[in-house]
Amino acid sequence: MPKMKSHTGMGKRVKVTGKGKVVAQQAGMRHNLEKKASTRTRRLTGTVEVAKADVKRIKKLLGR
Length: 64
Hints:
Residues 1-41 are annotated as: Disordered. By secondary structure, this protein is α+β, with helices and mostly antiparallel strands. The protein contains three helices and three strands; from the N terminus they run αββαβα.
């Protein structure tokens, strides 16, 4: 049986912390930034923990 390959696209989008939490970039920072308030765009910067409902699916794609 061949080895399972991890989903490379998902690997580029999320990161697993040392304790096993899945963190990703906050959504909403790709386009239409001129329309959004500066306070909103500042709040959207940085990484956040992924929703609990998605963690199982993401970890499966990462081969964990």
